[in-house]
Amino acid sequence: MDITLDPASSVPPFEQVRAQVAEQARAGVLPVGTKLPTVRALAADLGLAVNTVARAYRELEADAVVETRGRHGTFVAAVGDTAHREAAEAAGDYARRVRRLGLPRDAALAAVVTALDAAYTKP
């Protein structure tokens, strides 16, 4: 696992760790089932506080990128299926809500594009 932190970045270290692990898992650099370093080991390797790495791992687990198996450790989960399923569920929820609100299809799509543009351009 290769993680590079940018101390000059406005992005907090836990988010830099979370984003890089998530990207490596989605890209297959970290295949499903790969055991991640312990929180303490990764914190020591990166020169971070244990709580910083623990937060990154908690957020990765909440996003179903990794799964913790108790004392056995933390492993890369089957990200693609989970991510696509959750995105489809969120899209369905959004579609039902904008329809209830009476928003025209074009306006609903424009709102999604705006939100995605903002999400993908943030550091």
The major sheet is characterized as: 2 strands, antiparallel
Task: Please indicate the count of domains.
Answer: 2
Structural class: mainly alpha
| Regions with little confidence, pLDDT below 50 for 5+ residues | none
Tell me the name of the CATH homologous superfamily of the largest domain: Winged helix-like DNA-binding domain superfamily/Winged helix DNA-binding domain
Radius of gyration: 17 Å
Please tally the β strands and state the result.
2
In the sheet with the most strands, the strands line up as 1-2
- What is the CATH class name of the largest domain? Mainly Alpha
What is the name of the CATH topology of the largest domain? Arc Repressor Mutant, subunit A
- Mean pLDDT comes to 91
Q: Tell me the distance between the termini.
A: 21 Å
In the CATH hierarchy, the architecture of the largest domain is: Orthogonal Bundle
Total count of helical runs of at least 4 residues: 5
Strand content: under 5%
Q: What is the molecular shape?
A: elongated
Helix content percent band: 55-70%
Element-level helix/strand string: HHHEEHH
